Amino acid sequence: MTIDEYAAWAASIAKxxxxxxxxxxxxxxxxxAGEAGEVAEHIKKLLRDDWLDKAGLVDELGDVxxx
Length: 67
What we know:
mainly alpha
């Protein structure tokens, strides 16, 4: 899937609201923070073990983009 295909897919399922509720913003913010933490774990393991799970990192970065 290309980034353009992903963007089109995400736009098709997104619930875009001009004035999202605090609950919705909290949900998205916490989701983003969680996924960013998973990206950080991959980087930590790269620094610690000198090995990178590239496929795992790509998956997590995709999740960050989603949020």
